[in-house]
Specification:
Strand content: 15-25%
Helix content: 25-40%
Low-confidence stretches: none
Shape: globular
Number of helices: 14
Amino acid sequence: MVIIQPMEKNAKQFIGAPTFADDTLLRPSSFLHFAKCADGVLCFHALTKELLLLSPAEAALLTETHAAGDAAIRPFAEKHYFVEQAQDETKLADEFYAFLRLFVNRDEYFSAYRIFTTMDCNARCYYCYEMGRPRISMTQETAEKVVRFILRTKKEKKNGISLAWFGGEPLYNAEVINYITRRLSEERVTFASTMVTNGYLMRGENLINAKERWHLRRVQISLDGTEEVYNRSKAYIYKEGNPYRIVMENIDGLLDAGISVSIRLNVSAQNLQNLSLLIDELVARFGGKKGFFIYTHLLFDTDRKKFTGDDDAQLLQAKNMTALEEKLQANRLLGVHMLEDAHKITKCMADSPHAVIILPNGKLGKCEHYSEDHFIGDVENGITDRAQFLEFAASGKTPEMCGGCSFYPICNRLKLCPDEPLVCGKADKFLRQNRIERQMLKAYEKYKKAAK
């Protein structure tokens, strides 16, 4: 047994070292994940965050029940890789997270602001979740109120506050970005920003401002396929020019300006083969460029809230998407998150006490999917609905539905999240397992590199 990543200190403090009578029958923990590697078998404990390198014989021990007095399993039992047969690990995980939440800073301030400059857009994507919503844009008057709200509520961290520009298409109202960033600079506020954009308008003056005035560090751009597929699916409002080529040139411009670009490949049942061709084009054009990464996002054909768990079609889709990810990884373009070495208490802006959404009309929210309801206040009066604010942090996990799941300690499903299914289907579990194995292998490669 070799410790690649040690047990997280809070978990070690809370759970402690168990003691068992020698004749107690122990079973492997439900929270173990395994991944084969060239040097043996990696084992990750989702609750304690410990990652071990095991021999095949040691790994085999962790798949069977044993008496606590068995000397071979004692080092593992002491670290919670084995538990008593009747141990309610779901309850233990819930109690541990309740313990961690005691230390969350609940002071009323914000350090992250996601600002919708407009709900309007220059594209007409068939899958857009904002389709049919009013296409309102932020006025300069509202933008000034946004600035004053930020000045009243901000708490600057080491690198200042974080601004994230969103829409609609945020560059369709770039004047508001110019105004807000200029005013914040006048007030000597330190900030950095990111943006979710289709990239079409990221050129000329916008590109110059992005680097010099907006302090833009990273953009996310979605691509749906090669030239013909992309132009058809985006259905831009412009009659002239070639949108695909324009966006490719703008990505070049961003990278040359030192702004990172994260490409999101929208994967559906219809575009799998075309996306493989797109990856070839992206590798040829951007492979090796600093700050360029790609990740995949699965577009299901049905309402995810209606999943029953019997989703063989989605499972096939997920497996096909994984094949794309393997191709990206082989070309060193896949953005792989590091394996968690500490417990993440919040999932996203929705359940973070220090993040807020600002809509074009000045309304405040907690999730970009809710632009017409579930408001928590406005930029003039601040938070006026504390109950709604707290509801966004409510968990969507239940012991009845999720008990015994190996992902339970690292799954942060939120009750109001429209992206989360009510029931985790085969596709969800397959993708989670695939990604955690990839993270385990990445953590081991990092360990080996540091040991040289």
